[in-house]
């Protein structure tokens, strides 16, 4: 049995109102784990709400036929008995919601469920297990340990397997373990539609996203041990795309034969988003050296309030210094 699952079970039993939150710029593991827990808590008769700085990305709408995330929710008015954070490695990844309500969070039972190796354990109760491929895989075992597995239906199972698919790159990444396959097998037995997430996240691609991918390839530069590129706001405008459409780009580029490390810099209105992938180097630790960065050994990222050129210079200098590689 995982540590602290009994304590979590009691907190859920004793709570009537529960608030769920996941990390900003949510990926499918963040959405899948939040969505699965949301539906399960509803089955337990809880008054449950979910919040994030932004709406559910359109790419995830096929997983759930209702909008559960309420960016405008007044959490003080809702006044939850329990707050649960899913798939966030730090408080900074909880965005403006935490920043503006930090004192409020500290007055509540605050549970952190996560699998990132850089997570310091920032809740009053922490279920942080870096050996798991994804928060969705971890959440399944938590459901099992707390006797809630019988409440998993097809929708919940599909949400969980979607998060596993995306965080493991369909069982390809090094974070995939024998337990990952066991959990996936159990989810399929419980009715998970394992095909639709593969199609929607790894096979389907729109023409405009394909054009954006072309821009990314055209921008690539090769340096010692590195292949990297940049996408500007102008690139997004020309291809009629947005930051959401960058999903999967860095994963595809990570297959470049000549690269040990691949990263992409995406310009946003407030700075840049940076996504890293590596074959062997621990870029999770490297990304954690930035204020709001973190992730896994071979897949990580961070945000910088810099323009594209400034960010490129800072990243390259710090990368070669951090890994003691001569440029």
Explained architecture:
The protein has 2 domains: 5-201, inorganic pyrophosphatase (n-terminal core) (Alpha-Beta Complex); 207-322, Diaminopimelate Epimerase, Chain A, domain 1 (Roll), CATH 3.10.310.30. Strand 6 (221-223) and strand 7 form a beta hairpin. The protein is globular and about 55 Å long. It has helices at residues 5-14, 28-43, 75-78, 95-100, 102-106, 135-145, 154-168, 178-189, 195-203, 207-218, 233-239, 249-253, 283-288, 308-322, and strands at 17-22, 47-51, 82-86, 109-114, 125-128, 221-223, 226-231, 261-268, 271-278, 294-295, 299-304. It is α/β, with parallel strands linked by helices and 327 residues long. The mean pLDDT is 94. It starts with a helix and ends in a 5-residue tail after the last helix.
Please describe the structure with a list of short key phrases separated by commas or semicolons.
327 residues; alpha/beta; inorganic pyrophosphatase (n-terminal core); Diaminopimelate Epimerase, Chain A, domain 1; 2 domains; five-stranded parallel sheet; 41% helix; 18% strand
